[in-house]
Amino acid sequence: MPILLALDASSSACSAALLQRREGNDDVLLSRFALTPREHTRRLLPMVDQVLSEAGLSPVELDAVAYGHGPGSFTGLRIAAGLAQGLAYGLDRPLLGVSTLEALALGAHRRHALSHIVTALDARMGEIYVAAWRCHDGLTETLSQEAVMPPERLQLPAGHVDTGWVGVGSGWTLREAMSDEIRRRVGQGDTSLEPAAEEMVLLAARAYAAGERHAAHEVQPIYLRDQVAWQKSR
């Protein structure tokens, strides 16, 4: 059964998690998480060492490595990508990128039993990274494409406007800048919730089980802003 490691430094938080699937037994899920702004470079690798040590495993026993590929902090994404790619290269293992917004949605579902979630992260410069999700039985379904936008432009997915939505993530600290409709239809959730490797390793395990495999150089951070700028320049 596969053993996967995930790490993340996309926000103010820094985290690492290890998942060991065990046939006929309970899975082993170990994690480390800390709010460590500007300390990701110093804290991330020790977290990886800690979860491996606690599991009694060495890096060569890993089947795949995953990391939060964004959107999020440019510097944090590069830190996590560098470490994850280095591990994958050195171990000759596949690398999987995991959406930070999807991990945030799964975290809200697991911790608060939420089903219809609008995840938003503060993107600075008066913008948010945002997407909408339906979560059920530990699974996530995308209901709107991930995007970066000013908070006043946020709209609910077509056909789901009357759903009982809850907003989570740091982007909801900009709630007052959002439209009257959004403030009326989307309940206030946990604005302090951050993406975490614990959810990322679960998402990565599903992708791995479905046959997803990538070479380390094929998995790059997702910035969204670069994508928007590139599309406008064409």
Can you walk through the features of this model?
It is built from six helices and eleven strands. It has helices at residues 40-55, 74-91, 100-112, 180-185, 197-209, 225-233, and strands spanning 3-8, 13-20, 28-35, 64-70, 95-99, 116-124, 127-136, 139-142, 147-149, 165-168, 186-188. The strands form two sheets. Strands 6, 7, 8, 9, 10 and 11 form a six-stranded mixed beta sheet that branches. The chain has a five-stranded mixed beta sheet with strand order 3-2-1-4-5, with helices on both faces. It is an alpha/beta fold. It is globular, with a radius of gyration of 17 Å. Mean pLDDT is 93; it is low at 227-234. It starts with a strand and ends with a helix. Helix 1 (40-55) packs across helix 2 (74-91) and helix 3 packs across helix 5 (197-209).
Which key phrases capture this entry?
5-stranded mixed β-sheet, 11 strands, 234 residues, alpha/beta, globular, disordered C terminus, 6-stranded mixed β-sheet
**Broad shape:** globular
Average pLDDT value? 93
Oligomer: single chain
* Main sheet specs: 6 strands, mixed
Overall number of strands: 11
Distance between the termini: 46 Å
Report low-confidence residues grouped into runs of 5 or more: 227-234
Give the helix level as a range of percent.
25-40%
Number of helices: 6
Return Rg in Å. Answer: 17 Å
Strand content: 25-35%
Structural class: alpha/beta
> Which H/E pattern describes the elements?
EEEHEHEHEEEEEHEHH
